Amino acid sequence: MATDLQPVIETAPVRVARHTLGHDLGAIKIVLHRELLRFFYDRTRMISQLVQPVLYLLVLGTGLGSLVSGGGNVNLKTFIFPGVIAMSVLFTGMFSAGSIVWDREFGFLREMLVAPVSRTSIVVGKVLGGAVVATAQGVVILALAGLAGVPYDPVMLVLLVFLMFVGAFTITAFGVVLAARIKRMQSFFGVMQMAMMPMMFLSGALFPLSGLPGWLSLLTRINPLTYAVDPLRHVVFTHIHASARLKARFNPGVTWFGWHVPILLEVALVIVLGAGLLAVAIAQFRRTD
Asked: So where does this one cross the membrane (predicted)?
């Protein structure tokens, strides 16, 4: 005998967390914490990213030091020390941004994107995490200041850490912009090398910005990393004992058509650029699948 009884399906109510500022701040904290854990538990990455800056400082600085005459405690190592700090921050910040591509390949990024948090908080957490990691790596290089004839002045160290964080934030935001649309890690490494090497060599990290040919001088002025390296060098040379002639030679500063660009303006340019790149990264992430 046929029956009209049908199974009754009961559905449990699902409660989605309300979107609040505190919710977003919590998401930023979690993403930031994850970036820190990923870096500090990866000893191989930590050590490998120290090798290149240390080689530049100790081997290149010592090897070519006899070709560049300084005076007193100022030599080629003193000159390139701020540039080596910038290089360390540059490489670490860009590699940290590459974690987005890594997460995409292994599917973790999709899990984060479907989570009930705003994509803005994910991007901000990634950039802050990369900036903190890159600054920490720069602090390790900063500990080698004595080997370059740079004193451990507390005021100088605080200023350098602040400038490193500003530069690291901008570089990481730039890396996130690049990583937002790249699907494979191999492609990201290729793009990253293509972007990093010209930025590094045209920043004045390894040579003074005065007396350059016109075409090279123009390229250094339009390179954003120039305005991150020059304040670092200015702070270092303000706190070392050297003649005015040597300081003018090794720390000529940046000029625009003969006008000396103030250090505060250079720092402001880097901050504004970092905020702009962060906005671009957020816009790209909102369109990411």
From this structure: 54-73, 79-102, 123-149, 155-180, 187-209, 259-283
